[in-house]
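Aim 2, interim progress: modelling of the coenzyme A-bound target.
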Amino acid sequence: MHFILTTPRLYLRQFTLADAPLLLALNSDPEVLKYLHEIPLKDEAHAIEILTTVILPQYPNNLGRWAVHLNDTNEFIGWCGLKHRPEIDEIDLGYRFMKKYWGNGYAFEAAKHVLDYGFNHLHIKSITGRAHIDNIASLKVLEKIGMQFIKEEIVDSCPVKTYMATVQ
Ligand SMILES: CC(C)(COP(=O)(O)OP(=O)(O)OC[C@H]1O[C@@H](n2cnc3c(N)ncnc32)[C@H](O)[C@@H]1OP(=O)(O)O)[C@@H](O)C(=O)NCCC(=O)NCCS
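Predicted structure of the complex, ligand included:
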């Protein structure tokens, strides 16, 4: 297993192709995708396609969306991580958790440690976060980890709020 980091309650690791069932469970829930510009995954073959074309190719740069598990039980709860967006040359912080684990502070805990990891371990200078203007939970996470609101804009036809954190 390729570990990335641990927090008081969580550990983060790289996904592998064997995680297709976990990704399918996460990305087939319409409530999880409510504010995201994505179609629900249909089956495990579809999950393997996303792992192969979107998630795994980010890892050679030490970036990526990392699987998040509970330290105590090893349960998979979702993902959090940093993604390079070459088209706008940005490093983007993202997170997504299964609904049964919402409201426990896990997104804050994972996002805060991933942000610190990006600055202190990967030596990234600037990290961006975006959320749909109605995605209150996600906006709260971005604010709580100390990101600064930059602007409202339309991205992929969605109205979003853009935040940024820069190295101190
Ligand atoms: C956004 C998401 C990751 C938040 O995860 P979470 O683990 O429930 O978040 P936390 O428990 O760390 O809560 C962070 C803050 O948001 C608040 N919050 C959580 N859900 C909320 C809701 N539905 N409405 C309002 N506030 C909410 C929490 O109270 C907390 O604020 P507080 O510390 O001031 O109380 C989760 O809802 C999710 O996975 N949503 C689907 C995917 C998604 O939208 N990802 C973000 C894309 S930009």
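The domain at 3-166 is CATH 3.40.630.30 (Aminopeptidase). Strands lie at 3-6, 10-13, 64-70, 76-85, 90-97, 126-132, 148-155, 158-166.
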